[in-house]
Specification:
This protein is of the alpha+beta class and 153 residues long. 20% of the residues lie in helices and 38% in strands. The chain is built from one helix and eleven strands, in the order E-E-H-E-E-E-E-E-E-E-E-E. The strands form three sheets. A five-stranded antiparallel sheet has the order 7-8-9-10-11.
């Protein structure tokens, strides 16, 4: 048995007491174990949700993302973002395979369900409803504010 203070009169009373013998105040006992369990469950739920949302973003990123650009009336080339678990390959593909090349390689990390981090820069990722268009803000491949990439699968 330990002593606690009455919340009303501050008199020391037994932790088993239901009513303060000094002032008659009913002593509400909160079970700290229940509160701790509830807090842990809430934390686990938030962590689990965050983990699954990050996994969802990862699955979407691992698709083939590309842009078709026009050089002239009849000439086109394709720019591709090829995501792996930790890297992004920025590729140039043309009708001439000898011109195909990797322009840049980035190491990335998924921060949350809508953001990735590359070299201390945070990029926001948004998808259209069908998940066939991905917009990266700021643009990863040039100086524009954002760039859209498409999945044609």
């Amino acid at each position: 048995m330990s002593l606690i203070r009455c919340p009303e009169c501050s008199n020391e009373i037994s932790d088993k007491a239901k009513i303060c013998p000094n002032c008659g105040k009913k002593i509400n006992k909160t079970n700290n174990k229940n509160i701790i369990v509830i807090i842990i469950l809430i934390a686990l739920t938030i962590l689990g949700y965050s983990y699954f949302k990050k996994q969802e973003l990862k699955e979407l990123l691992l698709k083939d993302w590309e842009r078709v650009e026009r050089i002239s009336t009849d000439n086109y080339y394709t720019l591709k973002l090829d995501f792996s678990e930790t890297k992004i390959l920025y590729k140039f593909d043309s009708i001439y395979s000898w011109l195909d090349s990797t322009l840049m390689t980035y190491d990335y990390k998924i921060i949350n369900s809508r953001k990735i981090k590359i070299n201390d820069q945070i990029y926001e990722i948004e998808f259209n409803e069908e998940k066939t268009m991905m917009t990266i803000t700021p643009s990863l491949t040039d100086s524009s504010t954002s760039k859209s990439w498409f999945n044609f699968d």
